[in-house]
Amino acid sequence: MKPTIRFDRNEWSGAFGDIGTDLPLITGMILVSGIDAASVLTVFGLMQIFTGLTYRIPMPVQPLKVVATLVIVEKISGPVIYGGGLAIGFMMGILTLTGLIERLTRVIPKAVIRGIQFGLGIKLSLLALTNYVQVEGGIGYLLAIAAFILTIFLLGNRKYPPALFIIVMGLVYALLFKIDKNLITSSFGLIFPQIHQPQPKDIIQGLLLLALPQLPLSLGNSIYATQQTVQDLFPEKKFTVRKIGLTYSLMNLAAPFMSGIPVCHGAGGLAGHYTFGGRTGGSVIIYGSLYLVLGLFLSNGFREVVKIFPLPILGVILFFEGIALMRLIKDTVASKEHFFISLMVGLMAAGLPYGFLVGIIIGSILFSSGIMKKY
């Protein structure tokens, strides 16, 4: 018998636990590359619903972070983005179907995975503090402080889950000070995703520019750290890296043909949904449905509509998502060797170019050599 999917207030609260990561990256990619907003939002929503029904826990779908960053910085075009998504879907599919992705789990110790989680938590928390909280000046700081206090007070409260109150706070602020009713009216209209046929040259270019740089983070965070986080938060679930790799692959093999962006699972998103109340697939189904509605009915004016919601509120959600990930390092504290390796890998992942790949390699070598036992 499959576990029940719920849609109660805690699932609604948990639904917003990853919005601080997803929305800014999706918005940046749409604005810079000119890709079709209706397609991106609709397909992203469908993928959330797919994982909610498949896993029946708050398994997240997120934009590929390295891909999104490269797209925004390098202003990469839509066809290359779709080609890159198809390329990384093929690569992850090969790793999964050959069993290589499972063999790697026997090489990468848990202490290293804890370091990957810790490093990602650092990056998310710093991003929240530097790129979100400060953007609206004094009023932004006040919103962030109010949201922070409210979250501290209600975190873990199953009767009054915090994200609902935080999102309502942001919506009230937007309605009072930022919304343009004419803009909302003009944005309404039914639009379906655009069908796209990836070309070989775009797949090759996407492989070189986007898929290869993304792969280390995908293995470290989207596969291994996500599977470990599932074990941490849902110990009764026995999802393997093979299953997570398979759904990761399938999403990216399907999305490009509907003009959708490359996506992944992620330890941070899972921690975020869980932290704010999500315990079943209902939270990501709710979350995906919101993107689905936005893409199908409000994407005409997306570039303007998205500016309405205050970023400091998203920053607070993202900050607590990062903290939830960093806290998972606590089970390595009993061993000096494990704790040192986790800490070192985390700092490498957070601070170095290709830090997730560097951290995995160096951390695994140190662990297997036993050299840290001398200290």
Written account of the structure:
With 375 residues, this protein is mainly α. It has one domain. The chain is built from 18 helices and 2 strands. The protein has helices at 9-15, 19-33, 37-55, 65-74, 78-97, 100-105, 110-132, 137-154, 162-177, 181-187, 200-233, 241-254, 267-275, 282-297, 302-305, 311-326, 336-351, 355-369; strands at residues 62-63, 263-264. The chain has a two-stranded antiparallel sheet. Helix 1 (9-15) packs across helix 9. It is globular and about 65 Å long.
Which descriptors would you attach to this protein?
375 residues, mainly alpha, two-stranded antiparallel sheet, 18 helices, 2 strands, 71% helix, globular
Shape: globular
What is the helix tally?
18
Helical proportion, percent range: over 70%
Strand fraction band?
under 5%
Radius of gyration, Cα only, in angstroms? 20 Å
Unreliable segments of 5+ consecutive residues: none
Number of domains: 1
- Biggest pleated-sheet summary: 2 strands, antiparallel
Class of secondary structure makeup: mainly alpha
DSSP strand tally: 2
pLDDT averaged over residues: 86
Topology readout:
Elements: H1 9-15, H2 19-33, H3 37-55, E1 62-63, H4 65-74, H5 78-97, H6 100-105, H7 110-132, H8 137-154, H9 162-177, H10 181-187, H11 200-233, H12 241-254, E2 263-264, H13 267-275, H14 282-297, H15 302-305, H16 311-326, H17 336-351, H18 355-369
Antiparallel strand pairs: 1-2
Helix pairs in contact: 1-9, 1-13, 1-14, 2-4, 3-14, 4-11, 5-11, 5-12, 7-11, 7-16, 7-17, 7-18, 8-9, 8-16, 11-12, 11-13, 13-16, 17-18
